[in-house]
Every structure is written in structure tokens, then in C-alpha cells.
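Support request from a user on the community tier.

User writes: "When I paste my C-alpha cells into the form, the page sometimes reloads and wipes my input. The last time it worked, I copied everything first. Here is what I submitted, just in case something in the input itself triggers the reload:"
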């Protein structure tokens, strides 16, 4: 005897073992999030908040997290790179934030990673990509191969810094950026760099003195914050990748297309909210 009617897609998915996309997470007591996209997940895999989390958008200087991730897989921290005029002009021509590097300076990879992550130096990004491609085109290809290997299926990079040219630095999603943050933070070195408020490089015969301050204000606003990266372009808006340990779990979040100061206060509220949810389970 044939059963009339159709089995709902949700029930059918359960029966055949096909997973359904997670619905937008917005519990009644969750913070109000005005960013265009948002995603918060903990190390146990619990999603605490989501909003347009799979929408492909430019992510500005969050791109530099992948740059650092690729470099850390290939380089020795003691490697020395000579800064070229092209590195300096590239950042200046694009109107990007810089680490204030000068032609002829020789800095270690360790120092350049701080210059990349804290002041979000496009000059440092250019130098690292040029060295470890070798060449920027080859380096961007490595970034995209790494994204595929990490399962970041909605991510594509066109440069090592997230600057507008070419193609707004590519695109990603809040979900993919959270996955990347989780992988990057597994590195003790990356975690140390991303969580540093101020990093000073003493003057030597190889380079001038540099002092770099982290653009991530959340490090000073909330307890236990691990970093990780700020970003801004006209196309992307203000972005923030953030993380903290809360009640035995590592909470990672991403805000895309937000306002400048609001992204930090929103991130703090989301971290507190996730911590409360973890404590209540």
C-alpha cells in the first residue's frame, strides 16, 4: 500500500543521514549583532551565534591570518629578509596600513610576522609573500591550496594582505574565517604573536628600531582574549576575527561588515554570551 503525502525534507535528511545547514542562531538572550555577517563557535563544535555566516564577502586584512599561517609552515623564525623599495612602495601606493619598514632593512621572519599582525603592515605582507612564494603570485597560489586543504570551500585569495586590488583581495565567509582561526591558534607561535599588545624591535646594524601596537582593542577590553586580527577596506567594512578561552572551551568568532568601535564591544558581548552558554551546559 502506497503512503500518501511526502516526507518532509528535514525528516528525510535524518533518515538518510544527510546533514542540514545550521539555522541562524539567535536565541532570545543573545546579543544584538549589527555586523553584516557573524559566526561564533567553540572548540566542542557548538555554534553560539550565526548571521549570514556563509555569505561570500571581502574580509580585508583578515587575509593576513592565512599569510601568517602559510609562512609559519615554511619558514624558520630566524630567517632574515631584506626589505625592498617595492615592499615599501606597494603599501604606500595602495594607502594601506604599514609597519613603517624602509628599503634595505633586514629583519627576521619573527619580527616581520609581528609587523604583519599587529599594525597590519602591507609592507611586511609583501616582503613575506615575495620571499616564500617565491614571488607573490606563487605565494597566493599557496594560500589558495592551503585554503582548500583546510576545507575552506568558500574562500579565495588574490593577494597576501586583503587590499582592494585585485578583486578586493578575494572573498571568504564568517564560517571559513572561524575555521582558519581555529587552525592558526593551534600554533603556539601564532597565538603568541596574535595576542601581543606591543612588540618592540631594538635598533641594530641591520635595521632601525620599531615599535608596533596591536590594532585589536579587544585585547585590552576583555579578559583572556587570544587575539586575533582586525581588518578594514571600503568593500569589506570593519572586520574582526577574535578568540578567547571561556569555561574550558576556546571560543572563536568573526564579525564582517561592521562599524569600527562597535565590532570590539560586540565581540566582547558575544564572548560573554558564549561563556554563559558553555557554563550552562
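"...and here is what came back when it finally went through:"
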Amino acid at each position: 500500500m502506497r503512503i500518501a503525502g511526502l516526507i518532509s525534507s528535514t525528516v528525510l535528511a535524518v533518515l538518510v543521514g544527510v546533514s542540514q545547514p545550521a539555522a541562524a542562531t539567535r536565541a532570545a538572550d543573545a546579543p544584538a549583532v549589527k555586523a553584516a555577517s557573524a559566526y561564533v563557535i567553540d572548540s566542542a563544535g557548538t555554534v553560539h551565534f550565526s548571521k549570514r555566516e556563509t555569505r561570500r564577502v571581502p574580509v580585508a586584512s583578515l587575509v593576513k591570518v592565512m599569510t601568517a599561517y602559510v609562512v609559519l609552515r615554511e619558514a624558520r623564525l630566524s630567517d632574515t629578509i631584506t626589505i625592498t623599495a617595492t615592499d615599501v612602495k606597494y603599501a604606500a601606493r595602495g594607502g594601506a596600513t604599514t609597519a613603517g619598514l624602509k628599503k634595505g632593512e633586514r629583519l627576521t621572519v619573527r619580527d616581520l610576522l609581528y609587523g604583519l599582525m599587529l599594525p597590519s603592515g602591507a609592507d611586511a605582507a609583501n616582503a613575506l609573500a615575495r620571499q616564500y612564494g617565491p614571488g607573490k603570485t606563487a605565494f597566493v597560489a599557496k594560500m589558495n591550496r592551503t585554503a582548500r586543504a583546510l576545507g575552506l570551500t568558500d574562500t579565495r585569495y588574490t593577494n597576501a594582505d586583503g587590499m582592494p586590488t585585485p578583486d578586493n583581495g578575494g572573498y571568504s565567509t564568517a564560517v571559513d574565517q572561524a575555521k582558519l582561526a581555529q587552525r592558526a591558534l593551534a600554533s603556539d607561535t601564532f597565538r603568541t604573536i596574535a595576542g601581543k599588545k606591543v612588540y618592540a624591535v631594538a635598533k641594530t646594524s641591520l635595521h632601525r628600531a620599531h615599535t608596533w601596537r596591536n590594532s585589536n582593542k579587544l585585547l585590552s577590553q576583555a579578559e583572556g582574549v587570544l587575539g586575533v586580527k582586525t581588518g578594514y577596506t571600503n568593500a569589506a567594512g570593519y572586520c574582526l576575527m577574535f578568540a578567547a578561552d571561556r569555561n574550558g572551551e576556546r571560543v572563536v568568532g568573526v564579525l564582517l561588515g561592521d562599524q569600527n568601535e562597535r565590532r570590539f564591544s560586540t565581540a566582547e558581548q558575544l564572548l560573554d554570551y558564549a561563556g554563559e552558554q558553555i557554563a550552562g551546559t
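Agent notes: The reload is a front-end session timeout and is unrelated to the input. The first strand starts at residue 37 and ends at 42. DSSP finds ten helices and eleven strands in the chain. Escalated to web team.
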